[in-house]
User: Fold this.
Amino acid sequence: MKILAFVDTHGSTDALKKITQKAKQDVDILICAGDVSIFEQDLEKIIKKLDKIGKPVLIIPGNHESEKSLKKACQKTNNLVYMHKGMLRLKEYVFIGFAGDGFSLKDPEFERWGKNIQNQLKKKDKVVLITHAPPHKTKLDRIMDSYTGSKSIRKFIEKVDIILAIAGHIHENAGAEDIIKGTKVVNPGPYGKVFEV
Assistant:
């Protein structure tokens, strides 16, 4: 399966054009890890443009979209799947998503959700995790000499067999990739990256 992942486009028409062009390649599914807008400005227009791509787009809110507004916008589309606290099974692939604010080192709500999700996963599942916040202590969350990512997300990745973890939020680390216990963790940036899983 080929995934076109992107994050932190913040309403950029240039970024949306590049995403649309890349989606014309042999891509099965698109994943947006949040912050598709600037505080919901033109949110419905942006969502309509993503819908016109004509391929499934799994999306979670970032810290620039409310859960309610993004969910409502997605309900008016044919191709967008709202994934906050969600799970989607496509054959052997399982996509799970959690938004979060991107600013917390620990997230008790994510931890509770993670335990529940963990109980629903099977050994054969190929799991793709979508979060807005990056996991702690990786190339995705390093700013100068400190790490700002989520320890809760990192613990979850260390416990669960995940093939790909997609995150964003820290713009300075757009394009960064790292590994946590065999799991590829990526910040695909606003122009997107294609991953084969």
